[in-house]
Design brief:
Number of helices: 14
Strand order of the largest sheet: 2-8-7-6-5-3-4
Keywords: Aminotransferase, Pyridoxal phosphate, Transferase
Family: Belongs to the class-I pyridoxal-phosphate-dependent aminotransferase family.
Radius of gyration: 21 Å
Helix content: 40-55%
CATH architecture of the largest domain: 3-Layer(aba) Sandwich
Distance between the termini: 45 Å
GO molecular function, one term: transaminase activity
Structural class: alpha/beta
Largest sheet: 7 strands, mixed
CATH superfamily of the largest domain: Type I PLP-dependent aspartate aminotransferase-like (Major domain)
Organism: Quadrisphaera granulorum
InterPro entries: Aminotransferase_I/II_large, AspAT/PAT-like, NHTrfase_class1_PyrdxlP-BS, PyrdxlP-dep_Trfase, PyrdxlP-dep_Trfase_major
Length: 400
């Protein structure tokens, strides 16, 4: 007799996100400074909230699975005006945030045993989603400042007969690095030559300081999926609206995948998304300027308090997104360090959540107020000094 409580093999292989592990603890601690999650602390713009209220008053109901025509058109205009990307309506799909959009793309592409190349370091959900489908996530190492030759060689070595897609993410979560146009173009060219799809996660495409967004779709409309979101750009994380720019051959299937996955994205939040894309954009520039100011202040405070980083590893300056990666002492378990830091009043994301490259680092989110960041970094650097960047914690663990 079959066990009705038996879980699927794929489900049991999905690992919990290290970010969410820290978050679950952090939200229960009054007075703890939240630097573990990438959620803007700014309010959603007033005109966006007003548009949602008006839509709710008119009444909400089911709408097209691929997205309301007015929002699809607003997305098309946004991509053309700010990214130089021309797409017809049939190639746009509205998703419940970028995460669900990625899930729909992978569901359309990945069969059990298929491989998807994911960057290391990277947002952990790429691997989780591929694994849930019975696919095999294959990590490729992303070195800071790598040129197109280095990236292409790395990807060539990682690609195999069952490679279906390669994920790129610029600006990067967690490092904030932005790939140059030359690197992005080289990746698209390589993938095209191998019959592999590029899935370009560009949810931070407008949170730029000195860098450039990937704009990968512009290098190959039939070889690239562009993944975008309103969450970071407009401080709309809870509204759950993202969108995809898809190749012609893939768009109908992904649009169809929306039906069993969610029927449709809420008509109320889609109305809010229209207002965000069509309304005044000065709020975006103001938020980005504030993130840049916070980045500079946090880096200055870290350098002033810590001096040289253990092991001589550099403290990188992010050129996009809103994160700073802080190296710990070599060999330190960043998960253990992050959990210990919760006890010291500050939440950070363990680098191990993003792969192997940052296993001995932590990620700090700049999406908190200036005062919270100042207090949080002080608590972090005090812990850092007492533990020698986690080295004493490592030595204590070795003795147990």
């Amino acid at each position: 007799m079959a066990d009705p409580r038996r879980l699927s093999t794929s489900a049991t292989r999905v690992q919990r996100s290290g970010i969410r592990e820290v978050l679950a603890l952090a939200i229960t601690r009054p007075g703890l400074v939240r630097m573990e999650i990438g959620e803007p602390d700014f309010p959603t713009p007033a005109h966006v909230r007003a548009a949602a209220a008006q839509a709710a008053d008119r009444g909400s109901g089911y709408v097209q699975s691929a997205g309301m025509p007015r929002l699809v058109e607003a997305v098309r205009r946004r991509l053309a005006a700010r990214a130089g990307i021309e797409v017809e309506p049939s190639r746009v799909v509205i998703s419940q945030g970028a995460g669900q959009g990625l899930a729909a793309v992978f569901a359309a592409l990945v069969s059990p045993g298929d491989e998807v190349l994911v960057p290391d370091p990277a947002w952990p959900n790429y691997e989780m989603q591929v694994t849930l489908l019975g696919g095999v996530p294959v990590r490729y190492r992303v070195e800071p400042g790598a040129d197109e030759h280095d990236v292409v060689v790395t990807l060539e070595r990682a690609m195999g007969e069952r490679t279906r897609a390669v994920v790129i993410n610029s600006p990067s979560n967690p490092t904030g690095e932005c790939w140059s146009p030359e690197v992005v173009a080289a990746v698209v060219d390589l993938a095209r030559s191998r019959g592999v799809l590029v899935v370009s996660d560009e949810v931070y495409d407008e949170v730029l300081f000195e860098g450039q967004a990937a704009r990968a779709v512009s290098y190959g409309a039939d070889d690239v999926v562009g993944v975008y979101s309103l969450s970071k750009t407009y401080a709309m994380t809870g509204w759950r609206v993202g969108y995809l720019a898809l190749p012609r051959w893939l768009a109908p299937t992904v649009a169809q995948m929306q039906e069993p996955l969610l029927s449709c994205v809420s008509s109320v939040t889609q109305a809010a998304a229209v207002a965000a894309l069509e309304g005044p954009q000065d709020v975006v520039a103001s938020m980005v300027a504030e993130y840049r100011s916070r980045r500079d202040a946090v880096l200055q405070q870290l350098v002033s308090a810590l001096g040289p980083i253990p092991g001589g590893r550099p403290l990188l300056t992010p050129t996009g997104a809103f994160y700073v990666v802080l190296p710990l002492a070599d060999g330190v378990d960043s998960r253990r360090a992050a959990l210990d830091l919760v006890e010291h009043g500050v939440g950070v994301a363990p680098g191990s959540a993003f792969g192997d490259v940052l296993r001995s680092s932590v990620r700090l989110s700049l999406a908190s107020s200036v005062e919270d960041l100042r207090v949080g970094v002080t608590r972090l650097t005090d812990w850092y000094a007492v533990t020698d960047g986690g080295q004493r914690q490592l030595e204590a663990a070795a003795l147990r």
